[in-house]
Amino acid sequence: MADLGTLFTIADKVFQLSQSQVIKDVKDWESNLQNLNKSVSYIKNMLVDVDTKRELSREQQAWVEEIKEVLYEADDLFDKVITIAKMKQLDEDEGICKLINLRDLTDFNVGGASIFVQQFGGELKDLESLVNLRGELLITIHRYLVSENGNVCEDGYLKHIENLKVVDIHIKYTTYGNDQESLIAKLQPNENVMRFKLKGYNGTEIPRWGRAHDDWSIILPNLVTIELRGCERLDGIPLLSNLKHLKGLCLSVLNNLEYMETSAISHYSTGSKDVPFFPSLEELHIYGLESLKGWRGGVAESDSFSRKSHWLPPFPRLIRLSIHLCPKLTSFPPCPSLKTLRVTGIKNLLGISPDGEHGNLDIKNFSSLPNLPISEYRGLTSVLGALEHLTALEKLSLDDRYSEVDFDDMPWRSISKNLRSLKLEFFDTLEILPSGMKHLTALQKLSIQRFEELEELPEWISCLSSLHTLKIKSCPKLKSLGTIQNITSLQKLTIGYCERLSKECQKPSGKEWSKIQHIPHISITDW
């Protein structure tokens, strides 16, 4: 729980900041400040009441934590307003050239229609003089930015700022003469930047910034993390696979992107076997790329020789991979070092080819994978038979929303040694649990959800001798818990949205009550 003394201190600081003249001078904030002051006073009174209690309920603890976050956010906001206001005042008093020694500027807003941005925002050309900025810079470009027709230094607005480590560009509904590509062309970061994030860009390509080859290992060689979000019109991205230091890559809602690389670019970059393929990448998140088909384009599927010559090497160090809502994705480079894999909303990606020739994620390569959640996956049946290779698997989650799974192919014995958690969901037509589950003697947590036809748990359920937690939800026909009374290790039972079973488990007259009365923690709800 947050320290109450600290919360009192922050609350007092927020109240004092709200009384400062800089904050009061912000137009149209008067009524909001009055409401804020009332809220802060109320919070302080509530904290006094909380401080008198020896123990807090979970709800009270959660309230205190939420209040802590709100107060910290208010504190940060006021600090930023005051900092930017001081910078603006310095600009008005002495001219922007006097800001050459400014070293810290976290947020830079341009082109806004709001009172706040109009009062405390700037212009992109102001960045030209801020050569000593360091650390992190967030540039937020709003709808009403107008094209700056004046002279722009040859290298743009950012390239000369050598000490920036993080550049975060967020474009909010800007039109900029319907040419965002020319805007981004002026915002090339310095080669020392380690993290680059671009959000809301509507151009079809990211400018090459004067280079003949679109390879970021040449332009931005020190990048450690990259995030491209909400760039819905992008149909191509720069070559990233040669970046030596890149550890994290996040691509989200790039609706037009079909391939990460084209054959022309990959020929240029991977013509030599000495060029590594993502040598340091450890974490990759791909979300909402609804047109994405694979990693490398420009190779005919019928041309087997061409496919082999463009065969992608594996990600040598990739540990965490998540792929969500990419319905057209059918191929992917091998990932032999993977530890965490999350897959949702795709059709047929987890291939089981022995050599990974076609680029599918070969599940046989994941022998050390401890966690495998698969949902909304149309190729689930083809994966189950290969699970025998996942001998280290500890947690398995299966969602049958788009498949008709035949559990006869499921290698329960092979994964039984280390499997500790199992979640089964959306098996709408399954009337009985698969008998092979009786071999899961090390299983500690079992979740059964949305089984529309399941009427009873099997007699062998007591074979799950290590089971500690059982959750059953949205199983409307379920009425019997089988031999659950023989599972002496069971400590927690949760039943929800199971109308028939809930009635049978009512104390003391329910038919199933005698089977569960030994369980220390029982939760039964119908809402």
Strand and helix map with partners:
Elements: H1 4-18, H2 21-24, H3 30-51, H4 58-94, E1 107-110, H5 115-120, E2 134-141, E3 163-171, H6 180-185, E4 195-199, H7 216-219, E5 225-229, E6 248-252, E7 259-262, H8 263-270, E8 283-287, E9 294-297, H9 304-309, E10 320-324, E11 340-346, E12 371-377, H10 380-384, E13 395-399, H11 412-415, E14 421-425, E15 445-449, E16 469-473, E17 492-496, H12 499-504, H13 513-516, E18 521-525
Parallel strand pairs: 1-2, 2-3, 3-4, 4-5, 5-6, 6-8, 7-9, 8-10, 10-11, 11-12, 12-13, 13-14, 14-15, 15-16, 16-17, 17-18
Characterise this structure.
It is built from 13 helices and 18 strands. The strands form two sheets. It has a 16-stranded parallel sheet. A two-stranded parallel sheet has the order 7-9. It has 527 residues and is an alpha/beta fold. Among the domains are: 77 residues; 121 residues, Leucine-rich repeat, LRR (right-handed beta-alpha superhelix).
List the defining traits of the structure above.
527 residues, 18 strands, alpha/beta, two-stranded parallel ribbon, Leucine-rich repeat, LRR (right-handed beta-alpha superhelix), 16-stranded parallel β-sheet, 24% helix, flat
- Helix-strand category: alpha/beta
Mean pLDDT: 76
Q: Tell me the overall shape.
A: flat
In total, the number of strands is: 18
- CATH topology title of the domain at 407-527: Leucine-rich repeat, LRR (right-handed beta-alpha superhelix)
Uncertain regions: pLDDT < 50 for 5+ in a row? Answer: 113-121, 267-272, 300-310, 351-359
**What's the end-to-end separation, in Å?**
29 Å
CATH class of the domain at 407-527: Alpha Beta
Main beta sheet = 16 strands, parallel
Strand order of the largest sheet: 1-2-3-4-5-6-8-10-11-12-13-14-15-16-17-18
Q: What's the helical proportion of residues?
A: 10-25%
CATH superfamily of the domain at 407-527: Ribonuclease Inhibitor
Q: Supply Rg.
A: 29 Å
